[in-house]
Amino acid sequence: MRIVSLLPSATEMACVLGLGDRLVGVTHECDYPEAVRGLPRVTRTLIPAEASSAEIDRLVSEQFKTTRALYSLDVPLLKDLRPDVIVTQSLCDVCAVAPNEVQAALAQLPGQPRVVNLEPQSLEGVFAAIEQVAQAVGASAHGVLARLRARVDAVVTRSEGLSARPRVALLEWLDPPFSSGHWSPELVRLAGGLEGLGQEGRPSRRLRWDEVLAWQPEAVVVACCGFDVERTLQDVAGVQQVPGWEQLPAVRAGRVSVVDGSQYFNRPGPRLIDSLELLAHALHPEHHPLPEGLPRPYRVMGAGAV
């Protein structure tokens, strides 16, 4: 059975289920695990590589007002790949190929590929999505889900013993600031924090800096959507000039962490469990050891990094 994934998270789901050898096409953003990097790319982005964060925000905002997509689908290549299953999503209008473009492409494909539409908005939703992918190709997700749930349970058990839970600001964009959404506030709660800017199961939202300052977070975790740590740090430098930033409890205590949002927090796939473990360690390193193989959150102290 030939699978085309239109989502990095779906690509990771297929691979964790042992279906990597059935993937015949992926997106331009699919880069994990390493084996998928050599697969045909069926999408490309229309966002200029050199665009600043403010420019990207403007392009996204314009997309909401028009029918213009930010990603395009290579239909001739998709025809050549002859997929039996196409995995896509309709949760986020700016994170993948637009649903109407997928439907238009389907009309041009030989045969009738099965379309698996994923819409996870929570950890349970991610587990259900993994089950969807497995069922679409006649595979079992039982063992994979049992292992993922056990890791979540281990974090929750350790968090139950905490004597205090810090106020947390988990930000997924900085110029302008955006709260985290969907599954991310849930991760904060399970990791032992209190998220006052984002809401579980709801989309992220644009913030004003005075909202962030009013929350007086005791820990700040920055996981910019689509950015690695190095790219995120470029925007962190600008945030340090925001009036009142240096007086935040998190900044004074040296509890501002930068993580790879592209690889972890922004992909609703199996590595959301990695994200939970990263976040738990960032908030409570004395209770939540960093699992082997995960990158240590980058800690920013005041106006300089250490």
Describe this structure in words.
It is a single chain. This protein is 37% helix and 16% strand. It is an alpha/beta fold and 306 residues long. The protein has two domains: 3-140, Nitrogenase molybdenum iron protein domain (Rossmann fold), CATH 3.40.50; 162-305, Rossmann fold (3-Layer(aba) Sandwich). Helix 6 packs parallel to helix 11 (272-283). The longest helix has 19 residues, at 142-160. It is globular. It starts with a strand and ends with a strand. The model has no long low-confidence stretch (mean pLDDT 91).
Secondary structure: elements and pairs:
Elements: E1 3-5, H1 8-16, E2 23-25, E3 43-45, H2 53-65, E4 71-73, H3 75-81, E5 85-89, H4 99-106, E6 114-118, H5 123-136, H6 142-160, E7 167-174, E8 177-179, H7 184-191, E9 194-195, H8 209-215, E10 219-222, H9 229-239, H10 249-252, E11 256-258, H11 272-283, E12 298-301, E13 304-305
Parallel strand pairs: 1-2, 1-5, 5-6, 7-9, 7-10, 10-11
Antiparallel strand pairs: 3-4, 7-8, 11-12, 12-13
Class by alpha and beta content: alpha/beta
Radius of gyration: 20 Å
Architecture (CATH level 2) name of the largest domain: 3-Layer(aba) Sandwich
The global form is globular
Characteristic key phrases:
single chain, alpha/beta, Rossmann fold, 2 domains, four-stranded parallel β-sheet, 16% strand
